[in-house]
Specification:
single chain, alpha/beta, Aspartate Aminotransferase, domain 2, Aspartate Aminotransferase, domain 1, 2 domains, 7-stranded mixed sheet, 13 helices
Length: 359
């Protein structure tokens, strides 16, 4: 029983997504355009971006991978073109997604800072001292938890802070149309001080990455700089068709049904095992064990009993946050959740000689 994969709504095998991929190949018929010319693009891509723009209430650019989104977005951000011509101090949350932190090496001639996870005080101090600051964070973090976006928006209003929010793990599980955790925190337009990136895999059930921007000028700027896309990693027709199939699901009542079912599964887990994320509606839970040796042994015991989970190690998480990472999906049955919880509690008691704390 897989509690590792991130298809939180179980859409990766949805008939609409599978048939969308097949139909796109049959209609083209080709997998990609083997040409390095950004003027020539699939009509499917234009259709997909229009559909995504409606779902996310933003100007959306679609790319073949999240790594490509980060590469392009970071190159534009560090140039100063998004911050009034001044190169910003680039501030990373210490728990930011790996493909984001890899971009630190690409930030030539740009001051880079890393702050403690969700340390709003440290970020505000940097905003006070510097005329242009850009904060790079996740909306929903891969080990659970989220960014305090309302507090970040206050800093944005007070100091002009630029926000670069990756919501790879928040897309689809939040919002009436699955617009994601980060986008749902902005009730109106994103404006010219925020970009949100996201994954078309994970909760969305297809593949690729997206960039949400709030103004026509930003859209034009990113399209101008997206020459990497057709040259190095062209769009795949099947992926475009799959994403269009997922868009249909996102505009239907089925999405809310799957979100509700996911919420029920999360609540069931929370009633059995207390974690720091209890009650936050996120599908990711980290069960703190404390010792890496114990966490590895418990995960092994879970695996031998038929439950696949992950161990979280320092420095990916804090030294006191070592434990078992569990991804809950709408596809899990109640018995799957109960079985996992029973097995964990048994393994923990056997390994440590004491029951797992209920609070």
């Amino acid at each position: 029983m897989d509690f590792v994969h991130s298809s939180y709504l179980g859409l990766d095998s949805h008939p609409a997504i599978v048939s969308g991929a097949i139909a796109a190949i049959q209609a083209q018929p080709s997998l990609n355009l083997s040409i390095a010319g950004k003027q020539q693009k699939f009509n499917l891509l234009r259709e997909l971006e229009e559909s995504l723009s409606g779902i996310f209430r933003a100007r959306v650019l679609a790319f073949s991978s999240m790594m490509l989104v980060d590469l392009i977005a970071m190159s534009v951000l560090t140039s100063g073109q998004l911050t009034g011509g001044s190169k910003p101090v680039l501030v990373f949350d210490s728990f930011a997604r790996l493909s984001l932190t890899c971009q630190k090496l690409m930030a030539h001639d740009t001051r880079v800072k890393t702050i403690v996870h969700n340390d709003i005080g440290a970020l505000e101090r940097l905003c006070r001292k510097n005329p242009a600051v850009a904060y790079v964070c996740d909306g929903v973090y891969w080990m659970g938890g989220y960014s305090p976006i309302q507090e970040l928006r206050q800093l944005q209003e007070r100091y002009g802070l630029f926000l670069y929010i990756d919501d790879a793990h928040g897309i689809s599980t939040f919002g009436n149309q699955g617009e994601g955790y980060a986008r749902s925190q902005f009730p109106h337009v994103l404006g010219d001080r925020t970009i949100i990136t996201g994954s078309l895999a994970n909760g969305f059930g297809a593949s690729g990455g997206i960039l949400m921007v709030g103004t026509a000028d930003h859209e034009a700027l990113f399209r101008q700089h997206s020459v990497h896309d057709p040259c190095s990693d062209p769009h795949n027709v099947a992926a475009l068709g799959a994403a269009l199939g997922s868009c249909k699901v996102h505009r239907s009542a089925e999405l809310r049904q799957r979100q509700a079912q996911l919420a029920q599964r999360i609540d069931l887990f929370d009633r059995r095992i207390a974690t720091a994320g209890k009650g936050n509606s996120l599908p990711i839970r980290t069960i703190i064990v404390g010792s890496e040796i114990n966490a590895s042994a418990i995960a092994r015991g879970l695996f031998d009993s038929g439950f696949y989970t992950l161990v979280t190690f320092f420095p990916t998480v804090g030294k006191r946050a070592v434990g078992i990472r569990v991804c809950i999906t709408a596809e899990h049955k109640e018995g799957d959740i109960e079985g996992l919880c029973d097995c964990f509690l048994e393994q923990f008691a056997e390994r440590t000689g004491k029951p797992y704390p209920l609070r």
